[in-house]
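Lab notebook: predicted structure, single chain.

Context: the supervisor wants predicted structures on file for every construct in the current expression panel, including those that have not yet been purified. This is the next one on the list. No modifications to the sequence; it matches the entry in the shared construct table.
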Amino acid sequence: MAEENLSTGDVSEERERLLDGWDEASRGWGRQADRLQAAARPISDWMLSHANPRPGETVLELAAGPGDTGFMAASLIEPGGRLISSDATAGMLAVARDRAAEQGITNVEFKQLQLEWIDLPTASVDVVLCRWGVMLIIDPATALRECRRVLRPGGRLALAVWDRPQENPWTTLIQRALVDLGHVEPPAPGPGMFALADRARLTGLLEDAGFLDVEVEPVPILRRYASLTDWLGETRDLSRQFGMVWDSLPDPERQRLREVVAEAAGDYTDARGALALPGSSLAALASA
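Prediction complete. Output recorded below exactly as produced.
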């Protein structure tokens, strides 16, 4: 749903709807955080190796969710550095606080911040990190301008968005099954996993926001599951839409959904029923 097609009131309502959904999903993301970070580690590694946070710098992570990329940066900016771990929802911030405490991270403060209006002073941070956030909001162009605004001269932005649907069967196979069986409508244009999967568009948005030296490249990941049940269970935690559909279905329809997904994933399933499903993100680096 593009912002230009919405009235001011509709934009506010749509934004609230999106935030409420993420707040409700936060517990599931907390349950899956360790596993998700293990799979996403190549993306976090790319972002940090390219952004190169240094001792004494201030790092802002936006749409941090469980906070893991920022937490990896926390040790790199010691001594004297500060991590601001932020999310737009209180639920996700609570998950991140708990994980920081578990990991013994102390050079971090938590803020509830929106991507489209970052409540921080201009030129106040050295590095901005955002993994899988910018494509989920109504106005990514404004968000990237805000990222540029809060960065000091010479600061670095590292972000990741999801690559094209065909590069991510770990999630699209289930979504396609839901659509084919009539449980959901096909995804509408607007905020969503693949809203910024076009490399040229992502590059253009970064350049239009005033960033220099833009670099975009795909980073592959591999999602491993012990069984179909394992995969569907994770998806139920991470996807509010799937969880609502699954919970509403009678047993025969759940079984039919399982069968359709299993058939679609046949090429990724071994003789024991374990699955290895590929995925890909687009990772970007840009300089202020």
